[in-house]
Amino acid sequence: MLPLVLMACVLNKEDSGGSMPYCEDVATDVALDDETPLGFTAQALVDRALTPSPFAETLAWESGSETGLTLTLGPAGTARFVESTAVYPEDGGPAIGVECFDRIELDVPMSFVTEDGRLDETWQVTLVALDAGSVTLQLPIEPLELTGSYDVTDDITEPDYDEVSMSLRAAFTSAGTAGELSCQASGEDDCEDGETCSAWSSQFDVGSWGGEG
Known about the structure:
The protein has helices at 13-16, 43-50; strands spanning 22-30, 55-61, 66-73, 79-87, 103-114, 120-131, 134-141, 163-173, 176-188, 199-209. The chain is mostly beta strands. The chain is flat and about 60 Å long. The model is unreliable at 1-10 (pLDDT under 50).
C-alpha cells in the first residue's frame, strides 16, 4: 500500500461551509537548504525524488498488459513549509475530528511516458513530505486532455455515465518509486418530474507500477 498523504479527505475552510471542522494551512516559502520545524530541509525531497530521476519502471495496465514507463521529475521549483492546524466551528458542529499535517511541499514538472504510447504526458505536480523518509504526490487528471493514445472510455463498464475523472498517486522512498492510476465514473439515473433520482459512482484501477513503498 502506498504511503500517501491523506489530506484529500480533509476539508478546507471554503469546502466546510463554516459548519464542519477543517484544516487551516499557513504556507511559508523556504530555500532548499533551510531547516524547517519538521527537522529536515526541502533538499530532502530533492534527494529522495529528483536526484534519482528519471525512474525506469514497468507499468502494469489493469487490462493485463505491461509497458515500460519513464517518470522524470525536476528541476526543483518553489518550496514551502506548510503549518496545518485543525479549526472547529464555534457552535460545536458535528462530533468529528480532523487530522492536519504539517509538511514541506515542492513544485516540479513531471513527465510520464510509456513505451506503448498510451501515455505521453507532462504535468506540474506538488511533492509532499511529512518526514524525510517518504515523498508523495497526488494529482487530479483531466482524462479527455491526455496527449497519449489512452482512451478512458475503453475501461468504463457503466455505459450511462455523466462525468469521468482520473487521478495519479505516487510515492518515492529508499526502495524506489511506486504508484497507481485510477478513474471514477459517475452518473444519475433518469427519472420523471417529481421523482427522486439516484446517483451512482464507479471507481476502477487503470494501471500501477512498483511495489510497496
